[in-house]
Write a structure and sequence with these properties.
The chain is an alpha/beta fold and 300 residues long. It has one domain (18-41, 54-296): Glycoside hydrolase/deacetylase (TIM Barrel, Alpha-Beta Barrel), CATH 3.20.20. Helix content is 41%, strand content 12%. It has helices at 58-82, 93-97, 100-107, 128-146, 164-170, 208-212, 217-234, 248-251, 257-268, 278-296, and strands spanning 23-31, 87-90, 111-114, 152-153, 175-176, 187-189, 196-198, 240-246, 273-275. Strands 1, 2, 3, 4, 5, 6, 7, 8 and 9 form a 9-stranded mixed β-sheet that branches. The longest helix has 25 residues, at 58-82. It is globular.
Length: 300
């Protein structure tokens, strides 16, 4: 099945955010649970940046554990400072293994996008029924701990199968992140039953470039500002989503957090910016544009 029909952003129906905002600022920290001794995966080695390291890889594990023990709390304080309700791209295991973490997020009424169960267990090659059970586990875990229906799904390590969009839609989830490289706006996905949209989730604006490509945090902050300036100018005619794909264990390091602070100060200083959660963006799109786009570009 062709999941995404082609539509030039120049020639599709116009999207406008609430109060005429040009840019929806969507902050998505990846709050992840890594296992010290994960099961082997045939597709991708865990802790890929130390590809030659055997397990237990205590250095790679420790870097990520620092994120949940220390760096996340810096990140939360920064979101509080800027009045941002972030959307936690969260491994469901965090709820049970690290209850202090989701408690702080629930207290702040953050949004939740399930990022699989463990970040060391990918779904590539998973059988349909096993993946259905995995998604159901994520939905139930979020409901049990928050009392809310899960709004978004993104695969652990952005892993997926040919069945994932259909199973996500079947579970009643509103939006899906794995196709987020394709656009600057939400976009309908073709699924077997029900409806589903993708939200922008660009790896070009992810802090992993600091770790994997050797960019300094100052460079990354400049990338954010430059990216925003372009979307803000374009958003006067066709609204956009600025998705900040972040990892507290990376951007929450002491030598990086201030650079993110400066970038957010710059963005939030503009008048036509909507600080939105993933669910808010999805709800607005469904209420105002999904049916129009379905007629403009059939999704059935």
């Amino acid at each position: 099945m062709e999941r995404l029909g082609y539509s030039s952003i120049k020639h599709r129906p116009r999207v406008v955010w609430p109060d005429g905002a040009r840019v929806a600022l969507w902050v998505t920290p990846n709050i992840e649970y890594y296992e010290l001794l994960p099961p082997a995966d045939p597709v991708r080695k865990h802790f890929a940046w130390r590809a030659r390291s055997p397990h237990p890889d205590v250095v790679s594990y420790g870097v990520r554990d620092y994120g949940n023990r220390v760096a996340l709390w810096r990140f939360i304080e920064l979101m509080d400072k800027h009045g941002i309700r972030a959307t936690a791209s969260i491994n469901a295991a965090v709820f049970d293994h690290l209850p202090e973490v989701p408690a702080a997020l629930i207290e702040r009424n953050w949004d939740f996008m399930c990022h699989g169960i463990y970040n060391t267990r990918y779904v590539w090659g998973m059988e349909r029924e096993s993946e259905r059970a995995l998604i159901a586990d994520g939905v139930e875990t979020v409901r049990r701990h928050t009392g809310r229906m899960l709004a978004g799904w993104i695969g652990p390590g952005l892993s997926n199968t040919v069945n994932t969009p259909d199973l996500v839609a079947e579970a009643g989830i509103k939006y899906y992140g794995d196709f987020g490289q394709h656009d600057d706006q939400p976009f309908p996905l073709k699924v077997e039953r029900g409806r589903l949209i993708t939200l922008p989730y660009s790896s070009n604006l992810g802090d992993a470039i600091n770790e994997r490509q050797g960019h300094e945090a100052e460079d990354f902050a400049r990338f954010i500002v430059d990216y925003f300036d372009t979307l803000y100018a374009e958003g006067a005619g066709q609204a956009r989503v600025l998705a900040l794909n972040l990892h507290p264990y990376i951007i929450g390091q002491p030598h990086r957090i201030d650079h993110l602070d400066r970038a957010l100060t710059y963005i939030c200083g503009h008048p036509h910016v909507w600080k939105a959660t993933g669910e808010e963006i999805a709800d607005w799109y469904y209420a105002h544009y999904y049916d129009e786009m379905a007629q403009f570009l059939p999704v059935g």
